[in-house]
UniProtKB/TrEMBL annotation:
<feature type="domain" description="HTH iclR-type">
    <location>
        <begin position="17"/>
        <end position="77"/>
    </location>
</feature>
<protein>
    <submittedName>
        <fullName>IclR family pca regulon transcriptional regulator</fullName>
    </submittedName>
</protein>
<keyword id="KW-0238">DNA-binding</keyword>
<dbReference type="Pfam" id="PF01614">
    <property type="entry name" value="IclR_C"/>
</dbReference>
<keyword id="KW-0804">Transcription</keyword>
<dbReference type="InterPro" id="IPR050707">
    <property type="entry name" value="HTH_MetabolicPath_Reg"/>
</dbReference>
<dbReference type="InterPro" id="IPR036390">
    <property type="entry name" value="WH_DNA-bd_sf"/>
</dbReference>
<keyword id="KW-0805">Transcription regulation</keyword>
<dbReference type="Pfam" id="PF09339">
    <property type="entry name" value="HTH_IclR"/>
</dbReference>
<feature type="domain" description="IclR-ED">
    <location>
        <begin position="78"/>
        <end position="260"/>
    </location>
</feature>
<dbReference type="InterPro" id="IPR036388">
    <property type="entry name" value="WH-like_DNA-bd_sf"/>
</dbReference>
<dbReference type="InterPro" id="IPR005471">
    <property type="entry name" value="Tscrpt_reg_IclR_N"/>
</dbReference>
<dbReference type="InterPro" id="IPR014757">
    <property type="entry name" value="Tscrpt_reg_IclR_C"/>
</dbReference>
<dbReference type="InterPro" id="IPR029016">
    <property type="entry name" value="GAF-like_dom_sf"/>
</dbReference>
<dbReference type="InterPro" id="IPR012794">
    <property type="entry name" value="PcaR_PcaU"/>
</dbReference>
Length: 260
């Protein structure tokens, strides 16, 4: 009898092109930790044979998405076309940027917008004012949803079963001494965010970093993204951020929601 994994795994057919999926695997194997790789490294990272990885890499090279210096493969700037195709198909973010810039000027803290993708949030727009994180963030950056203010707020829009399934699929580990790692405790924070329609996370992702998020909703009231502001704990406490910045953040999120 087939296992559940076998029965639910995609199989080649009219609705699933395996070679295309493998090509995306190869693209995703490049990262900040592995910006340049040998053929063997790509094959090992993707689980492909050397021959299979080589065919995909040479195809990407022919199309201009990969560069090869005779030993190492690396992505080229053309790969950005794939990501910006999403942003250009969502003109809302062009219209949201002035709203976010006005918010940054008002609160004097960095502002970001993100959407939920599987167990992560993906940044779609960012207006920084200070470098407050060790992590360098920009459009396309990913962070775990379970320990971020925007992530927990976006998870709150899922039903309870989907929420627990998403958390079960997440790699939950202590990132700071403040990080919640118990799933029930995280669920409680997500449910709190669902009730109050905003979420604050205090130094769980990174020591000294506090962030607060508000929802961006479409006409049907569905949460399509989240907006947040982030600050340093040694400059602005969580209590002060909630009392002085949350109203402005909620107002900006509502303004962007109206643009939808």
């Amino acid at each position: 009898m087939a296992t559940q994994k076998e029965s639910t795994a995609p199989t080649p057919g009219d609705r699933y092109v395996q070679s295309f999926a493998r090509g995306l695997q190869v693209i995703r194997s490049f990262s900040e930790r592995a910006p340049r790789q040998t053929l063997s490294e790509v094959a090992a990272a993707t689980g492909l044979t050397r021959a299979g990885a080589r065919r995909i890499l040479l195809t990407l090279q022919t199309l201009g998405y990969v560069d090869f210096d005779g030993k190492l493969f690396a992505l080229t700037p053309r790969i950005l076309d794939l990501g910006f195709a999403y942003l250009s198909s969502m003109p809302i973010w062009n219209r949201a940027e002035p709203v976010m810039e006005a918010l940054v000027q008002r609160v004097q803290e960095s502002c970001s917008a993100a959407v939920l993708d599987d167990t992560d949030i993906v940044y779609v727009l960012r207006v920084p004012i200070h470098k407050i994180m060790r992590i360098s963030l920009g459009v396309g950056s990913r962070l775990p949803a379970w320990c971020t203010s925007m992530g927990r707020l976006l998870l709150a829009d899922l039903d309870d079963d989907a929420l627990r399934a998403r958390l079960a699929a997440s790699s939950i580990e202590p990132l700071t001494r403040h990080t919640l790692t118990d799933i029930d405790a995280i669920v409680a924070r997500v449910l709190q965010a669902r009730r109050q329609r905003w979420c604050l996370v205090n130094q769980e992702l990174e020591e000294g970093l506090i962030s607060i998020a508000a929802p961006i909703v479409d006409r049907a009231g569905r949460m399509v993204a989240a907006l947040n502001i982030s600050g340093q704990a040694n400059r602005t406490s969580a209590k002060v951020m909630q009392e002085t910045m949350l109203p402005a953040l909620v107002g900006a999120a509502q303004d962007i929601s109206r643009l939808l």
